[in-house]
Amino acid sequence: MKKNASGINNSKQRIENKNNDLDLYLKALNSAYSGIIITDNLQYDNPIIYCNKAFETISGYAHDEIIGHNCRFLQAQDRSQAERKIIKEAIERGEECKIEIRNYRKDGTLFWNELFISPVKNEEGQVTHFIGVQNDISDRKKAEHDLREEKSHVELKIQQRTKELQDKESFLSSIIETVRESLLVLDANYIVLSANRHFLNSFKVTTEETVGKLLFDLGNQQWDISSLKEMLTQILPTNNPVIDYEVDHIFPHIGRKVMLLNAYRVEFEGQYKDRILIAIEDITEKKEQDRRKDDFLSIASHELKTPLTTIKGLFQILQRLSAENTDPKYVSTLDKITAYIDRLNLLISKLLDTSKIQSGNLELHMEPFEIDKTIQDAVESMRLAAPDSDIHLTGNTGSIVEGDELQIIQVLNNLLSNAIKYSPESKKVEVSIHKVANFVKISVRDYGMGISYQDRQKIFERFFRVSHIQKKFPGLGIGLYVSHEIILHHKGTLWVESEPGEGSTFNFTLPILINK
Questions:
Q1: Where does the PAS domain lie (predicted)?
Q2: How far apart (Å, rounded) are the C-alpha atoms in residues 480 and 460?
């Protein structure tokens, strides 16, 4: 008995040692200066299943926005790089490789990435994972570029061009005065050097009250907004612009203003070094129009819902009262009317969802449920509703997630409906479900017309529809918007991967509550 107890204690000690070792390895990886990721080569599209803190810092993306994606998302639209082919071939051969490639942070800024990729093999020699080690070499690339520029006398050309711009200062100033947008120029200490006429007229101030004053002291310190101040004070040290920062403020004499601020560092040699240009767009009226439109949608949807429900009930009564010898054309007409009522009812429900999202009143009934079964049931229902389509389902996670099951079904139904609708030449749709780190990833792939890069950037916006399909395929452009917001409220992400003519894959993730 003592020997058995001793053996158990030794096993516990070994397990504890392994756990301690694992914690140490994870701490070491998170302490590394280099960005480190691990991808699962056994899963579809080789998704990222781990990233350390340095990778989040380098890329600008949060952990939850990285997990489940393929590494190529870092190249954004810059997809013609020869290095992408080198990576692809190395992964296909299960070999390591080292490249330098252009990547883009979440805010769109370019950085050069020195990437080392190494395969991880199991005991049978099968490549199960890849480890990627990434270093930001933008400074080195810039130094190399500057050296080439210097050798080709570009420095001299820059000086000549700068002098030309300085000589035309008065001409440029006159152009600025005609811009129908408020513009401010600040020095390195955030003192206003100039304000165009549009700014003075919009905010009912004079040049004497503005020029030479600290920005944050203008208008009885009305511009002393802590979040704005924090961002502006980071422009010169980091060279990161402030883009579309919304300010909702009440100003003396002019009342409430809603503005979009864009601020950039403007640097010339000599007396124009380290300047900040601030462009202010007044969107007060646009916001008010959006609010009125949302109110109209909400009221109209509610008002339409009640009579439509009554009409549907009356038609159901007519259907039940139809005798056996009733004219088939009459019965068919009733069925068609009921189908159109259902379509209209679905459209109104989507409008109501949009209104609730905009007003922040989207209701979620969060409960644990088996995601595999939910996906299977939704796919089976869609097969019955669209018998001509060839819908395949693969994967199994054995996971329980917490969320509003009906809302998740709505998202999947919308993605499946779109896959069928926008693939008139191909009826094949592939649905897959996988476990990726502590998330469940669901993918819906079609073989239809695909989506351009420009349209992919806006496809989840409210009421956006791809221009060349508006006439061919009816719709309001709210399904993907509602789906995106539902997944966002579930602390997941929804994204699309697509190329024109090659179909589309819509993916979304949900956090795992329990692993069986």
A1: 21-94, 168-239
A2: 5
